[in-house]
Amino acid sequence: MSGYASVIIDISAKGIDRPFEYEIPETLIESAQVGATVVVPFGKTPRLGYVIEVLAQPSRSKHQLIKAVLAEPRAFDETMASLAIWTAEKYICSVSDVIRLMLPPGRSRRLRQETSAADKEPRYSISQPQVNIKKERYARLMITADEALQAALELSRAPRQAAALRALADGPLPAHRVAAFTGASSATLRALAAKGLVALYMEDTYREPDFTYPEELPLDLQLTAEQQQALTAITGSDSGGRPFLLQGVTGSGKTEIYLRAIERVLERGQTAIALVPEIALTPQTVSRFRTRFGGKVAVLHSGLGLGERYDQWRRIRDGSYSVVVGARSAVWAPVENLGLIVIDEEHEPSYKQDRTPRYHAREVAIKRAELSRAGVIMGSATPSVESRYHADKSEYRLVKLTKRIEDRPMPTVEIVDMKSAERVGESGFFSTRLLDELSETIRRGDKAILFLNRRGFANFIICRDCGHVINCVRCNVSLTYHSRERALMCHHCGFTEPAPSVCPECGGRGIGFFGAGTERVESELKELYPDTPLTRMDSDTTTAKDAHRTKLVAFRAQTGGILLGTQMIAKGLDFPDVTLVGIINADTALNLPDFRAGERTFQLMMQVGGRAGRGASSGKVLVQTYNPDNYAIQALLTGDYDTFYEHEVTLRDALDYPPFSELINIGISATDEDAAIALANRAADLVRDKMGDGLLPSVKELLGPAPAPLSRLKNRYRWHILLKTDGDPAVKRFLRDVYGSLVPRDGRDGPALTYDVDPMSLL
Ligand code: ADP
Ligand code: ZN
To answer: Does domain 3-126 sit in CATH 3.40.1440.60?
Structure first.
């Protein structure tokens, strides 16, 4: 009997791989199943690979044999194998890149080969991973519990030894716990071991990240009528496999619906994944899940150390957890018997990975749920135009929450036109209107949140004498001044240099710092309100492990005060005593050259504004802008999503942007500008030729090639070509096929080409 397997080779080829067929030797038929890690001959050397499919019929007649199946736990099952193939096709990437997302964090990809002298057979294993299973010293009794209690009585002259014996009478304990309970040092335990009363040994253990967050969460909330209706719609009916879109205003209690829906799934003995944007994966969010589901909850996010992530992964894999809460990559979590995927803030762009493989976790989640016959709940106060459109077309089921909990009013919104506003201070980024409200809030003893989506001190350094602007040497962007370090920094590539005191161009002393960043706003606020506690949260102030959590815990506990921050504070925070939200500049996202600029701005402003008035007192949102008449800004006044959506979807339709087309952004970059242009032209010509021959009817429009808005980044010149397609996979197959002929296989400095399907950013 023989069999055949389709195997994905685990190499990081620059190109786009395909599966290779191998014959399974009879001895390996049992073990060479889907998801098995195998060793196969490939080129000159044996390679690691994964069985993606076991074939009944091979497509060719000649095959090489699989050399070995490694004694690893199965990396994925049939469902996840299908998901990997779907993802690779949808996003024009290699299956091995997708499979890597399913492997344990820190797993090595190097194959180790040993030839034993005895039988001359090579043995294969995977090289030591970057992380190991953590071991811990344990102590246990070598005698019965009764004997130990008796021995403890006789050890009255060695009270620590006696205490340790009593502690161990209840069962084995890690040595450090014995020490914590009884004060017994390791010398104490060694003394007991020498007497033959206790054995010391090493045992596998898990690293436990600290998620504690002080919040009293009622366990038995009475659902509001609206919540009850929504929950019944979601859990009570058969949606015919369609995902639910839960559109609920901020503070309407969406989380409670997720928790109840997950509860039902667990009662049926199934598991759930809850996706939360990285930025909203706050201690507060985690604690809501922990309070409800306790030790059943695993948390996956990038803030964890590699060892912590590895341990969470291992325990998910062995079934110790039934709920996984995590950011984008948690959609690949190795849970079995999946019953539900929740996607909170489904409109968040961070669900799209901005490096290969460029997948969108929301779309992958919907596919995974479909393959696993699981449910999907997507929630948002401001759904993505795409998702809402699918709901209007009845592909998703729309469920609405229109009221805040306890009928708390939505915050009132006021737009401050900065073109005509009276302003305060040297930098002029505070209107007197905003400062009046801020002073009033402080006087009442309430809290205020100020939002500015830009860190640093000043983002624009110009010489007032000669007009020279200081740009990054590697990127076509201006540098940002950070006053604490007295340094200029590039927020794209990290390039840093000391701030000059004279203009590097004309040698004059006219250097001036313009534009506002959180660091500058902080220093002005300190002068304006020296006695008010001020917390600044951006990626410069939260680099230390746990800084994020400790800052929020402190802000929550204090009376009054100001929280100033970037995006990081826009989501997942629920403080009842915040009554003012001030948006210092609503235009940063609005002015981006991207068709989603309006949508982004509306979503972000609504989200930030939603932090106001979540407690008993009502809230106010002040929006400072130079574009008061823009439709996205105007929509904030009523806060009515549907009005905004109608306007936006009409624009999209007129311009054939998503959801009316699927975009593919072909990105080209090279250290040499001419090489980038040449490659961009070749790629465009290939597609145009094919379109001209009528062979790519699914491409509706080809835009470019043109320089990307960020035309130079990290020393590379960037061009792009934008395809609007009707989503037919034929164009993707074509692009996959031509990849190799377009991109020469030379080193890392050579020209590079990337495909980005459904791009979230066209920069
Ligand atoms: P959303 O995610 O829709 O912005 P949350 O889920 O954060 O809203 O809920 C807002 C607040 O209301 C939270 O503090 C939550 O604990 C509380 N809450 C939710 N449902 C109820 C309820 N039925 N009764 C009382 N409080 C509730
Ligand atoms: Zn740079």
So the answer is: yes
**Which amino acid residue places its CA nearest to atom 17 of ligand 1?**
253
pLDDT given for residue 243 in this prediction? 95
The pTM of the full predicted model, rounded to 2 decimals, is 0.85
Distance between Cα 570 and ligand 1 center (Å)? 17
Q: 177 exposed, middle or buried (CB, 10 Å; 0-12, 13-18, 19+)?
A: middle
Strand partners, 447: 561, 578
Whose C-alpha lies nearest to ligand 1, atom 2? 254
Give the ligand 1 atom nearest the CA of 610.
4
- How far does residue 717's CA lie from ligand 2's centre (Å)? 12
Fold of 225-406: Rossmann fold (3.40.50)
Domain extents in the chain: 3-126, 134-205, 225-406, 412-458+515-653, 662-757
- Residue 416's alpha-carbon distances to 432, 436, 640, in angstroms, are 10, 13, 19
CATH 3.40.50.300 holds for 412-458+515-653: yes
Spell out which residues line ligand 1, taking CB within 6 angstroms.
Answer: 221-224, 227, 248, 250-256, 405, 574
Tell which atom from ligand 1 comes closest to the C-alpha of 255: 6
Cα–Cα distance measured from residue 567 to residue 548, given in angstroms and rounded to the nearest whole number: 13
Residues 6+ apart with CB under 8 A from 69: 28, 31, 32, 36, 37, 38, 39
CA nearest ligand 1 atom 15, residue: 253
pLDDT at 455: 81
What is the number of helices (H) and of strands (E) in the chain? 21, 34
Compute the C-alpha angle 267/269/271, nearest 5°.
Answer: 100
CA distance 573 to 285: 8
Confidence bin at 746 (pLDDT 50/70/90): low
| Alpha helix ranges (H) inside 512-614 | 518-528, 547-557, 587-590, 597-609
- Which three-class secondary structure state does DSSP give residue 572? coil
Q: For 56-110, where are the E strands, in sequence order?
A: 68-69
Position 131 scores a pLDDT of 64
Tens-digit pLDDT profile for residues 58-103: 888 888 999 999 988 888 999 999 999 999 999 999 898 999 999 8
Give the strands of the sheet with 716-725, arranged side by side: 699-713, 716-725, 662-670, 752-757
**The pLDDT of residue 410:** 84
**Per-residue pLDDT band at 13 (split at 50, 70, 90):** low
Which residues have C-beta under 5 Å from ligand 2, the single-atom ion? Answer: 472, 474-475, 490, 492-493, 495
**In this structure, are residues 678 and 705 in contact, taking their beta carbons and an 8 Å threshold?**
no
Helix (H) or strand (E) holding 490, with range, is none
